[in-house]
Amino acid sequence: MAQNNLRIIIIGGGAGGISAASTAKGVAPEASVILFTEYEDVAYSPCGIPFVHGREIPSFENLFLQTSEHYAEIGIDLRLQTTVTGINLGNRTVSVGSQVFEWDRLIIATGFEYENPNIPGVDLEGIRYVKNIRRAMEFDKVLDQVKKVVVAGATPIGIEMAGNLAHRGLETHLVDEEAWLMSKVADPDIMEPVQKSLEELGAKIHFGTKVLEFKGADGKVKSVSTSAGDIDCDVVVVATNKKPNNRLSREAGLKIGATGGIMVDDHMRTSVKDVYAAGDCVEVVHGVTDLPIQGLSGSHAYSQGRVAGANAAGVDRAYDPVYIPWGMVGGKVQIGGVSMGETLHKALGIPHFVAVAQGISRARYYPGVSRIRVKLIADPKTLRVMGAQMSGGEGIKERADFLAFAIKRGATLDDFAWMENVYSPPIGALMEPIALAAQAGLAELKKTGHMPPKFAGA
Amino acid sequence: MAQNNLRIIIIGGGAGGISAASTAKGVAPEASVILFTEYEDVAYSPCGIPFVHGREIPSFENLFLQTSEHYAEIGIDLRLQTTVTGINLGNRTVSVGSQVFEWDRLIIATGFEYENPNIPGVDLEGIRYVKNIRRAMEFDKVLDQVKKVVVAGATPIGIEMAGNLAHRGLETHLVDEEAWLMSKVADPDIMEPVQKSLEELGAKIHFGTKVLEFKGADGKVKSVSTSAGDIDCDVVVVATNKKPNNRLSREAGLKIGATGGIMVDDHMRTSVKDVYAAGDCVEVVHGVTDLPIQGLSGSHAYSQGRVAGANAAGVDRAYDPVYIPWGMVGGKVQIGGVSMGETLHKALGIPHFVAVAQGISRARYYPGVSRIRVKLIADPKTLRVMGAQMSGGEGIKERADFLAFAIKRGATLDDFAWMENVYSPPIGALMEPIALAAQAGLAELKKTGHMPPKFAGA
Asked: Which class in CATH covers the domain with range B325-452?
């Protein structure tokens, strides 16, 4: 099935591009695979950057996962610091300045960029974004010289940066227009322990506060002007939302979706034959709502890259709609979930019932035990679980993976209420917190007379 | 549906009996619920006992979860230190010596007992079993006075005791006839890191060694005679296999199954109308093999008690076949799984394919990262996963819960290979170890030409 002697070109060296290149080469070893990236490096973990700044991880060197030589060895022609300047869909070429490269298959993995805050002062020295590892290395040296930092935006990266910079001992201000952390995706009760933890680390959180201007002197940022007054600072971390980086694709004429991501089908094929796309630059189908969604995780980019690379090289591999397990550490607290929480279901007007409970991660007498709050958002008629959010404890990532898998396959509150679970004092409680949440939900439905007939006997 | 004024009698105050009593009372608040137990206490965690001996947990007091008064408050008539001496199925009564109690519904939750080693010397002073908390409190004082312990049997409880007693600083010998730890249920490669960890804690492990006799002087044990010579000791912990404690049920004429457990249907109903049973005294259906199985976890006993209690009180609640997620800590190493491992599939002659990989629990550069070995045992024709075993890392309990849920619902290697997973450096790696194992399995099937046609495109 795999075609050989193919010329495959990949634009982008992040998780999507790298996995596409490796997979394509694996499927079609005789194919020529060229990967262009404007950056100096590939195959490092950008997600680790905040933790090096926070000195949880000793060095940026730790973040490199593979050497460039490794890719040469497996036959991938890596072109570092090489910016693709144009895509020609008719001629089936890409341009790098005046150089032209022909392709039989093109895979676009141009990733994300931060939303421009579009306020005065964005070009001042000291306004930083967390993305490229070389810039992070430079920024880390800057951080040695400064005392006060403003993080603009209580997004996931904003929260990771605020926690880590506070942990490093800097005076850290986290500024956000909304009333709680990660308000676009997470529920307030889930984020409350994160807020407390950030404050315990010393971060100052400014809710309901709009960033209006970055003010400077001698070209350097000196303060952030907000709707609640000025905050002095030496540097600013801009942590706005991520949006697809698709100028090239747009100029080339590929179809762009409502979210701003490149439109792809279930094989990661774009609107043009033999052109694939993967990662943060695309939009994919959200399994629960059937709506397009963009801006997922490195793990999603990696999987999409595998699918795009395999299909480009001649295999028939589908990419399923996504249910989006997510998880992170905010301050010292684990949070995570699947698909959407209560807030988003409410905002979108989706009928929903929330089953919630607090459980524990180990036997309650065992050292290291911690609380876990679990919320399951279910369809009130079928009791199918549509989403989940959790905070606290340990094992949030594993629970999110589990819930995503189960939700994708139509699991109901009843299924979770009667799930089997491990019980062993050092690693698990008698009752799994997910089961407790489901049981509490069923009990409430029964008490309030809202139990769907199908489950009336439960 | 629930019937009131019922007289419900429960025999046994462990997880099964206590959950049956609480659930029955919840469903039928007007019912009279009497619970008999021969012991001094209910609602403590026997599973915590080894960890108090090991001084991981400061005191036996920590293991008590509820007071007896709590049960009186919710209307359960608790009869402590009261041994039921007979069950009369015709008269619908139980006897406590000369006293007779009538029931409309009877729930039997008489738990397990250790298999009798049936060798000379079992009645010597210093021969101990881990079961009752009062005996454990006494034993803990004895442990303050001794130096050398033999643990007879590398069963789960034997391994927990050996690790904890070594951790306490005692000269600890773990003796087992077989060639690796937990050989009846676990695979040797899974148990190898546990063995290393126990040895690092100072435990001496004697494999291939049969215990022949407990030898004593003045009625006290002084050594254990084995097929490989004598081992001096001050006390012996007998950690034989657990078997159903069902003398009463057998004498009463209830049907007993091939495993020695009381036979129950999918509503925890015994062979006699209005008589239910739950917990370690019963056998239930194993979801993968459809064969009866006994001797599961406290969590299973608790769930079975809920079902028995609910049905006894008038609700219609089924108990599904079990897939048996399990997990524990051996030495310092987490192990766990679902259903059966490679060894048992082989022993039972079930066609199977093993997909195996080693993954990591966090980003590989993040402090606290550890390795996780995952083995998925799949049907070679359908690629449906039938069982799993894991060791290492963190999150084994959560993964076992997940795998049990997914296996019950027919998940294949392909489903796991393409599962979505959380990626966040402090809590999860780019690729989930379960997915890596499935991917490695598929790659091997492809390479060796054994991929079933349905998955040929993968």
From this structure: alpha beta
